[in-house]
Amino acid sequence: MKRTLGTCYYPEHWPRAIWEEDARRMADLGLTWVRIGEFAWKRLEPAPGDYRFDWLDDAIAVLGAAGLKVVLGTPTATPPRWMLERHPDMLALDVEGRPRKFGSRRHYCFSHVGYRTECEQIVTRLAERYGRNPHVAAWQTDNEYGCHDTTISYSDAARGAFRKWLESRYGDIETLNAAWGAVFWSMEYDSFDQIDLPNLTVTEPAPAHALDFRRFSSDQVVSFNREQAEVLRAHSDAPISHNYMGRITDFDHFAVGADLDFATWDSYPLGFLEDRVGADETRKLAYARQGDPDFQAFHHDLYRAVGRGRWWVMEQQPGPVNWAPHNPAPLPGMVRLWSWEAFAHGAEAVCYFRWRQAPMAQEQMHAGLLRPDSTEEPGYDEAAQIAQELADASDIAPVQAPVALIFDYDADAAWNVQPNGDGLSYFGLVFDTYRALRALGLSIDILPPGTSDFRGYGLIFAPGVMHMSEPLKKDLADSEAIVVLGPRSGARDRNMAIPVPLPPNLPAFDIRVSHVETLRQGAGVALDTGGFANGYREIVDTTETVISSFVDGQPAVVRAGTSLYVAGWLDDEALRDLVRDLCAEVSVETQDLPEGVRRRDTATERFWFNYTDRPQTIDKISLPACAVRREAKA
Ligand code: GAL
Predict the structure, then answer these.
(1) Which of 302, 469, 578, 623, CA to CA, is 20 to 30 A from 241?
(2) CA distances from 363 to 559, 607, 614 (A)
(3) How far apart are the CA of 189 and the centre of ligand 1, in A?
(4) For 18-32, what is the HEC assignment?
(5) C-beta separation of 413 from 211 below 8 A
(6) Is the pTM of the predicted complex or chain greater than 0.85?
(7) Is the residue at 213 inside a domain?
(8) Ligand 1 within 6 A of 315 CB?
C-alpha cells in the first residue's frame, strides 16, 4: 500500500481567486488528500431548505483537477444559528443544567430528535450530490465526537431518551430497582417516568444509575453516527470514517467504529502534553516541544483497533496549537518524527491541520503549513521531506505485535463513576501499563474487550477491566498467552455490584480480593522485589503461588498456571521487573530503552524514535535529537 499525506482545507475561508493556486501548491508538496466541508453548514444551507452547493461543487472540481482526492466532512458539528430558532431546546445542558450556547461549535444534544432529523437531511443532500463524485474518495462524519466535553448532556431530550433506553433494557421497573440496588436510601421507583438524570443530586447518585447514564450517552453517539453512515452508504461507495480525539473516552469508540470503514484521529502532541497526558512539571518541561513519547503511539495502536486495521491521522499538529495552557513551537524534526511514527504503527495517511493559518476567529493562533500570508512554515518543509521519503522508500509491512493490551470503554466509565480515590482513572492505569511495555522496547496491539481470538500473542494485559464478561475470562484463560489481570479486573458485575464469590472470579485461579484501599500521593506500598503500588492496592486471599509480596507481607503478584493477578497499581519499576521476566519466559525480546527513546517493529523493519532534544546512541545506532531511523531487521 502507498502511504500518503494530506491536509485540512477550508475553501470557504479564502477568496475564490486563490483556490487554484492552493490546490497546485498542495499537489506540488506531494499531498494526496484534502479534507473539506466539516464546518460549512451555514454556507451550504444559509436558511432552512435553501441549499447552496455551487461553491462546494466548484471547490471539489478545483481540488480534483489538481489531482487531489477529497475527504468530505458532514457539517453536523456546527449547526447554523437558524437551527436554534427551529429547535430552541436542541442545546446540550451541562451537569449544572446550564445550556451550552451557540457561538462556537458542537452545540447540540445527541438525543434531540429534531436535530437528528436536520442532520439526516443535510447528510442526505450531500450524499446525493457527491456520493458518486469521482473526486470525493472518502467521507468523515461530523467532527470529533465528544470533544469539548460534549458526549454527556443533561437536557430534557436526554432524559426522555434515557427513560426509553432503560425501559427497553430492563423491561419492568422492579428489574431496574433490583439492578440498581435502589432499596438503598429508599430510591426505588414505581415507573420509568420517575427516573431522572443523575445530576444535581444532593450527594452522589447510585453507581449503577450513573453508569447506565454513561452507557446510554455512549449509545446515543453510536446511533447518531450510524444514522449518518447509513445515509452515506446508500449513495456512495467511498469509505466512511470519523476523526476521534486523544484521551476522549466517554463513548465506546469500538461501537462507533463498527459502523465505519476506517478510523482516523487528531494528533496534537504538544497540546496533549500540556493538558491531557497527566505529566508532571518535570516531564512537561523535558518534552514541551516534542510531546510525550508514548501518548501518540498509544492512540495509534488504539485507533488501529477501532478501525479494524485501517486508520489515518486526520489532523496532525504542524506547529504551535492555540488551545493548551502553553503553546510552544515543536523542535525541528518533530513534525517528521510524529508523521513517521504514525506510519510505523500502520497509518495509511497523515494529514496536517491546517493548510493555512486563519487570520480571523478562534484559531488565529494555530499554525498551519502556511502562514496567513501564504509563506511556508517549518512544518511545510518537513511535510515536503516526508513526501519525498515516502516516494523513495519501500512500503511498511505491519505485523501482529507480541504483546496485547485490552482497552475497555465501559471500564473507563465504571472507574469514572467510582474512582474511589482522587486522580484514579482507568485510562491512567492502562496508559501506565502501556508506557512500561514501550520503555522495554515492546510493540503492542491494543484490543477491544470483545476479542475472542488471542492467537499469536505471548503476553496479554487486561488491568482494570471492572466488569469482565464470562466469555472474556474464559477466552483469556484458554489462550496460549500469559495473561496479566488486576488491579480491579472483574471487580464489579454489570450492575456495578460487588460479585459474590468475591472478585476476580477467574477460571482455575483460587484468589479473592477481600479488601481494597486507595492511597494518597506519597503513601504507596513497597514491593519486596522493588517498586511500589501507588494510588490503589488490594488485599487478596489465595492458595496460589505468590511471586512477589508487599513489604507488609500481603501478596502483590499471584500466579496460577499462565494467569497472573496483580493486586495494586504498580509503578514503572515494579511493572518493568514483572514484564521483563514474563517476556523472557515466552521468548519475547525486551530492552531497557534510554529515556525518551522508543521503537516499533514492523514485519521487516525496526523504527527508532528519539523524542529527546539530545543525540542518543543505542545498539551502535546513533539517533540525532528529535529524529527517526528506519533499520532493516536483523
Ligand atoms: C481539533 C479540531 C479542529 C481544530 C483543531 C485545532 O480538535 O478537530 O477543527 O479545532 O483541533 O488544534
Answers:
(1) 469
(2) 53, 34, 32
(3) 43
(4) HHHHHHHHHHHHCCC
(5) yes
(6) yes
(7) no
(8) yes
The proportion of the chain whose per-residue pLDDT surpasses 90, expressed as a percent, equals 99
Task: Based on the fold, state whether residues 131 and 184 are members of the same structural domain.
Answer: no
322, three cell numbers? 492555540
Atom of ligand 1 nearest to the CA of 143: 8
Task: Tell me which residue range forms the domain holding 618.
Answer: 598-632
Residues 574 and 500 in one domain: yes
Residues 361 and 253 in one domain: yes
Query: Each residue of 319-378: pLDDT tens digit?
Result: 999 999 999 999 999 999 999 999 999 999 999 999 999 999 999 999 999 999 999 999
- CA atoms 168, 172, 176, 179: torsion sign: negative
**Residue 144 alpha carbon, nearest atom of ligand 1:** 8
Instruction: For residue 349, give the C-alpha cell.
Output: 495517511
Query: 353: Cβ below 6 Å to ligand 1?
Result: yes
Q: Which residues are catalytic?
A: 144, 315
SS (H, E, C) 143-198: CCCCCCCCCCCCCHHHHHHHHHHHHHHHCCHHHHHHHHCCCHHHCCCCCHHHCCCC
Same domain, yes or no, for 143 and 232? yes
DSSP letter for each residue of 35-58:
EE-TT-HHHH-SBTTB---HHHHH
Helix, strand, coil shares of the chain, percent, nearest 5, are 35, 20, 45
Pocket test for ligand 1, best of 13, 105, 299, 315 (most atoms within 8 A of CB): 315
Q: Is the pLDDT of residue 157 over 90?
A: yes
Helices (H), 265-392: 269-275, 281-286, 295-306, 334-344, 378-392
Containing 473, the helix (H) or strand (E) segment is helix 470-478
Domain identity same for 351 and 255: yes
Angle at 526 between CA 563 and CA 593, to 5 degrees: 70
Is residue 89 domain-shared with residue 125, that is, in the same domain?
A: yes
398 within domain boundaries: no
Does ligand 1 have an atom closer than 6 angstroms to the CB of 144? yes
Burial 285-300 (b: 16+ CB within 10 A, else e): ebbbbbbbbbbbbbbb
Tell me, yes or no, whether 457 lies in a domain: yes
- How close is the Cα of 84 to the center of ligand 1, in Å? 24
| Type of residue found at 238 | A
Atom of ligand 1 nearest to the CA of 38: 9
Over residues 78-92, the pLDDT tens digits come to 999 999 999 999 999
For the chain, the distance separating the N- and C-terminal CA atoms, rounded to the nearest angstrom, is 23
Task: Identify whether residues 382 and 432 lie together within a single domain.
Answer: no
Measured in Å, residue 239 CA sits from the centre of ligand 1 at: 22
Place of cell 500521593: 521
Please write the tens of the pLDDT for every residue from 479-532: 999 999 999 999 999 999 999 999 999 999 999 999 999 999 999 999 999 999
Ligand 1 and 187: CB distance under 6 A: no
404, β-bridge pairs: 445, 460
Domain of residue 469, CATH code: 3.40.50.880
Q: 196 with 317, same domain?
A: no
The total number of structural domains that make up the chain: 4
Cell of 54: 455551487
Q: How far apart are CA 510 and CA 362, in angstroms?
A: 57
Rounded CA gap, 484 and 481, in Å? 9
Gap between the Cα atoms of 538 and 274, Å rounded? 32
Ligand 1 pocket member 321 (CB < 6 A) = yes
